[in-house]
Design goal:
The complex is a heterodimer of chains A (435) and B (143).
Chain A (H helix, E strand, L loop, with lengths): L5 H4 L3 H22 L1 H10 L20 H6 L13 E7 L7 E6 H17 L7 E4 L7 H13 L2 E4 L5 H10 L4 E4 L1 H13 L11 E4 L6 H11 L2 E8 L4 E7 L7 E3 L4 E6 L13 E7 L10 E7 L1 E2 L11 E2 L10 E3 L2 E3 L1 H12 L5 E8 L2 E9 L9 H19 L4 E5 L6 E2 L2 E2 L2 E3 L5
Helix pairs in contact in A: 2-3, 5-6, 8-9, 10-11
Chain B lengths: L2 E9 L4 H11 L4 E8 L3 E8 L2 H10 L4 E11 L5 H11 L4 E6 L8 E7 L2 H10 L4 E2 L1 H6 L1
Antiparallel strand pairs in B: 1-3, 1-4, 2-3, 4-6, 4-7, 5-6
Bound molecules: zinc ion.
Protein name (chain B): Amino acid-binding protein
Organism (chain B): Geobacter hydrogenophilus
Pfam families (chain B): ACT_8 (PF19571)
Chain lengths: 435, 143
């Protein structure tokens, strides 16, 4: 068991919550005083700095949306004068302007510490050689991991992305023991290494810290097998800080600890905005409670997860998020039930242990929503007997009914019938919108 | 003793069977026997062909899901109740027939039936013990 900051990582819940309240109150006061956007939105909601008397009052505060950040482009949400801002990052918006974030020196220190804690939780020590293939630049991945590695006292190789051949040579010659990159890049490198005649399994890597894109348990198995290392899931987003907002501990590898002395997580129903109880799947909302540069109140991440406060084997008291399973934009409401495509994907994976190609077709007939799940029959699912295939589709229907509480119809289809654009499958066809 | 059948998953939509037979014909594959089992959504096409490897390859290239299945080919005596005798013999030994279908061509005087059993080896021993003729794969493909 190794912590970076044992006192804070294992703070008893009561003390942790007292600290959160104190810090939340200070953050609300700070944004009220220095960010016009918050002053106005709090005014509209009838909130003053002393409205927050308990953590439960957090629910009364208005949300901050990604659109609010775009509308405040570039510096409108900054709560510190430029004299105090020492770093600026931006997230790549697929459309339009990026969202811009600024860090004070204290913010950089906090980020470095939380990233150092994350490395420690993943089983990284001084003496480890961290091969950092996250991109350096406006994107927070590279520098975030870099500062954390130095803070921990490990040796960091600032590789950034690209030039895969060189990455493999350096990893081999420098004896890298830790790999940080996106999960898909790790598999790409393993494949490229094989072509170069380098066996990834013979390298010194013992742990890989993978994030910045959603990945599955099946992909973890594949990475651990092909790279012969322990694959750890890390979560972060530039609006909140960057990498290191939450990470799995190596002991349990079951859920990502979110550093609650700096962030307050909530799970909401993306449709109604209501806060959901522990264990329920919904959209992650984060309030930063120590940031100076750009504090955010109830920021809607659009990431879908659930939260548990159950004690963890590692001894950390901070809540855990389940693996991110998609975006709230993908949510469907079928007969009043919130359904995420990822839930159906994990049901399908649970049944056959493979990642199947599927598409959800939602329709409305006689004012009633209907759901059809089309599953492509590949060689692993195929049988030459009708009854085997029929029982497969009945099993899927039953599992979906049991787990999600909605009835659906499963239709088995030929491979490649489901449209793929740019290699990614389109998961949902909602015909209700056009009718 | 076993015969290799190729099984193909098809959706119930028009033109699929025509496409498969055309793909096989273009590749010079001859279909010796065929059966289609279907539901309202999908079907399974089962084929005995002269060239299994080529058939499998060209169908896979066209995106079809194809698998190989072991089946048993039995000569049915050319007399009334011929098939019934086979089924009775299997039934006595409690062997389940998953499905069966007829071969297109005859083997000399006799018709040939393709059987899919859940216990292939046991089925073959019952059939031979009762004096029925189980045909070799090689003979069927070349017929
Ligand atoms: Zn833990």
């Amino acid at each position: 068991m190794s912590y970076y900051n044992e006192e804070f990582e294992t703070l008893p819940r009561q003390a942790l919550e007292a600290l959160q309240l104190k810090r939340l109150q200070a953050t609300v006061a700070r944004v009220c005083a220095s960010v016009p956007f918050y002053r106005q939105s709090f005014d509209r909601a009838g909130i003053t700095p002393d409205s927050v008397k308990s953590l439960a009052d957090l629910q009364r505060l208005p949300f901050t949306l990604k659109q609010d950040m775009r509308d405040s482009y570039p510096y409108g949400l900054f709560a510190a004068p430029m004299e105090e801002i020492v770093r600026i990052h931006a997230s790549s918006g697929t459309t339009g302007k990026p969202t811009v974030v600024g860090y004070t020196r204290k913010d950089i220190d906090t980020w470095s510490e939380l990233m150092a804690r994350s490395f420690a939780a993943a089983g990284v020590h001084r003496g480890d050689i961290i091969h950092n293939s996250y991109g350096y630049g406006l994107f927070t991945g590279g520098l975030g991991a870099h500062y954390g590695a130095e803070k921990l006292g490990a040796s960091v190789i600032p590789m950034s992305g690209g030039n895969t051949k060189k990455q493999i040579m350096i990893m081999k010659d420098f004896g890298s023991t830790v790999l940080t990159c996106t999960p898909s890049y790790s598999l790409f490198m393993a494949e490229a290494a094989r072509e170069e005649g380098v066996d990834f399994r013979q390298l010194k890597l013992h742990v890989g810290i993978f994030g910045a894109e959603p990945w599955s348990e099946a992909m973890r198995g594949e990475i651990e097998e092909k790279l012969n290392l322990c694959a750890i899931d890390i979560y972060g987003l530039s609006e909140i800080m960057g990498p290191g907002v939450a990470i799995e501990c190596r002991e349990a590898k079951k859920g990502l600890h979110i550093w609650e002395d700096h962030f307050i997580p909530e799970i909401i129903d993306p449709e109604t905005g209501a806060v959901l109880p522990e264990g329920k799947l919904g959209e992650l909302v984060i309030t930063t409670i120590t940031k100076e540069g750009i504090p955010l109140i109830r920021y809607r991440t659009r990431d879908i997860t659930s939260l548990t406060y159950e004690p963890c084997a590692c001894g950390r008291t901070h809540a855990r998020l389940t693996r991110m399973t998609g975006r709230s934009d993908d949510m469907l409401i079928i007969r009043g039930v919130n359904v995420f495509p990822s839930q159906i994907e994990s049901i399908l994976m649970g049944i056959e242990g493979v990642e199947p190609h599927y598409v959800l077709i939602v329709d409305r007939k006689d004012n009633l929503d209907s759901l059809e799940v089309q599953v492509e029959v590949d060689e692993r699912l195929f049988s030459d007997e009708i009854k085997v295939l029929q029982s497969l589709s009945q099993r899927i229907e039953k599992e979906i009914k049991d787990i999600l509480g909605i009835s659906c119809r499963v239709r088995l289809v030929e491979p490649q019938t489901i449209t793929r654009s740019e290699g990614k499958a389109k998961r949902v066809i909602d015909n209700r919108k056009s009718s | 003793m076993n015969v290799e059948q190729i099984s193909i998953f098809i959706e119930n939509k028009s033109g699929r069977l025509a496409e498969i037979t055309k793909v096989l014909g273009d590749a010079g594959v001859n279909i010796r026997a065929l059966s289609l089992a279907d539901t309202s959504d999908f079907g399974i096409l089962r084929l005995i062909v002269n060239d299994r490897e080529t058939a499998k390859q060209v169908l896979k290239e066209r995106g079809f899901t194809v698998s190989k299945t072991e089946v048993v080919a039995v000569e049915v005596p050319d007399r009334p109740g011929g098939l019934s005798q086979i089924l009775q013999a299997l039934d006595r030994d409690q062997i389940n027939v998953e499905y069966m279908y007829a071969f297109v061509e005859r083997c000399g005087e006799n018709a040939v039936i393709i059987f899919r059993f859940d216990e292939t080896a046991k089925a073959i021993s019952t059939l031979t013990k009762n004096g029925f003729t189980v045909l070799e794969g090689a003979r069927l493909y070349a017929m």
